Amino acid sequence: MELKILAFVLAGGEGSRLFPLTKERAKPAVPFGGQYRIIDFVLSNLVNSGVYSIYVVVQFRSQSLLQHIAEGWQLGGLLKSEFIIPVPAQMRTEGKDWYRGTADAIHQNINLIEQSAPDLILVFGADHIYRMNIRQMIEFHEQKRAHVTVAAIPTDKKHAKEFGVIETTFGNRIIGFHEKNPNAPTMPTDPTKVYASMGNYVFSTDMLIKLVEDDQKDPNSSHDFGRDILPKAMDSAEMFAFDFMTNVIPGEPPGKLPYWRDVGTLDAFFEANMDIRSISPELNLFNRAWPLRTAGYSEPPSKFAFDEEDRRGQAIDSVVGGGCIISGAMVKNSVIGRRVYIHAGAEVLDSIVFDNVDIGRRVKLRRCIVEKNARIEEDTVIGYNLEEDRKRYHVTDSGIVIVEGPRSSVELTRMTI
To answer: Which residues are annotated as site, described as Could play a key role in the communication between the regulatory and the substrate sites (predicted)?
Structure first.
């Protein structure tokens, strides 16, 4: 069976709970894992799955995201059917509004659907860290002859109050939606778990158009798929849940469980970064059969300098991006971005350091997130006295210290006259 598939990636998230990391950028543009952005995960999943017609819906503080897509996600332009195109709010509603919800984002771009006439439409979020073979979800959707398929992940019942929960039959037919309800029904096959919606959907085109157009007529709707549209479609649409735990990624060892993390908070973001630097990481960045793609930069190799007893450049249980110089410093249990210079005598422990950071001599960092372009003066100590740190930095309840940096400069061409 040959299907025309169009994907919408919803990348307009404000990410208020990730502040101050989202002070200058949308949540999907937040750096992750030393050289990636959060949006790279969904785009890699789509491209690796054979989906090449993609619109990226943007809204809040989108400049960093637009620049990243321009630098890293151009498919070449040889085939008109292969594209990744950012789409801002089109102001197509009567009130000429910005996107008012996930469903409104699709409705405002309904002309893109009408122009391409796809058989199926994928609507995926851009703010989770995960690997997914989306082809298997599409195959499941077709096998069930579904109008709507929702990606679902089994989650401990105690977390039901944190997610939109899907109620299903034994055959995974959806019979109810429960938004952040601690008493939501459990899975038919496991009374200790609930099906949490991942916010990723496959729609038949005709049904999606009908649902979003009907939703526009409801003055009380928040125009959200999970909260409004899908619950109201229970009687008119055939809906099924795709169990994410059945998803198989090419190149992964047999029996390895799929990885998915919601990085909606600073603590969750920190822990997801720590996952990739562990000895046997749950998220495998070294699977060549399912690469995690991103913008390519011409960075030199990273360099570790000096091998003296009190001045040894080393990184232990850590991930280090390109172009770094670790000069007589210790890095341990950390994730280091690109072009980071760590000077002699410094110690970076259990921390995340974004790109283009300079860490001075004898600096001590522990459980920190250091923003792009930060310059940390020599002998500075952060993460050891949280009361003092709160006077200068943003500190989470769990004791993670966020060190902000200045905006990146923009190089302009020069003209001689």
So the answer is: 59, 98
Q: Which of 177, 230, 148 is nearest to 140 (CA)?
A: 148
- Residue positions in the annotated binding site? 99, 164, 179-180, 197
Burial class (CB within 10 angstroms; exposed 0-12, middle 13-18, buried 19+) of 409: exposed
Residue 267 corresponds to which tokens in the numbers above?
């603590």
Q: Are strands 303-305 and 5-10 parallel, antiparallel or unpaired?
A: unpaired
Looking at domain 5-276, which of 3.30.300.330, 3.40.50.20, 3.40.50.880, 3.90.550.10 is its CATH number? Answer: 3.90.550.10
Write out pLDDT tens, residues 277-328.
888 888 888 899 999 999 888 899 999 999 998 899 999 999 999 999 999 9
303-403 matches 5-276 in CATH topology:
no
Q: Which pair of structure tokens corresponds to residue 64?
A: 């960093």
Residue 297: CB atoms within 10 Å:
14
Global pTM exceeds 0.70: yes
Greatest Cα pair distance in the chain: 76
Q: Would you list the DSSP string of 258-323?
A: P-EEE--SHHHHHHHHHHHTSSS-SS-TT-TTS--------PPPPEEE-EETTEE-EEES-EE-TT
- Distance in angstroms (rounded) separating the CA atoms of residues 356 and 406: 11
Other beta carbons less than 10 A from residue 62's beta carbon? 20
Q: Which two tokens stand for residue 308?
A: 């003296």
Question: pLDDT for 202-211, tens place per residue?
Answer: 999 999 999 9
Kindly list the domain boundaries of the chain, sorted by start residue: 5-276, 303-403
The CA-atom distances, in angstroms, between 105 and each of 58, 171, 191, 301, 309 are: 9, 31, 36, 42, 58
The matching CATH number, chosen from 3.40.50.1370, 3.40.50.970, 2.60.120.10, 2.160.10.10, for 303-403 is 2.160.10.10
DSSP state of 47: H
Residue 287, amino acid: N
C-alpha–C-alpha distance, residues 26 and 31, integer Å = 11
Annotated binding site for alpha-D-glucose 1-phosphate: 99, 164, 179-180, 197
CA–CA distance, 18 with 70 (Å, rounded to integer)? 24
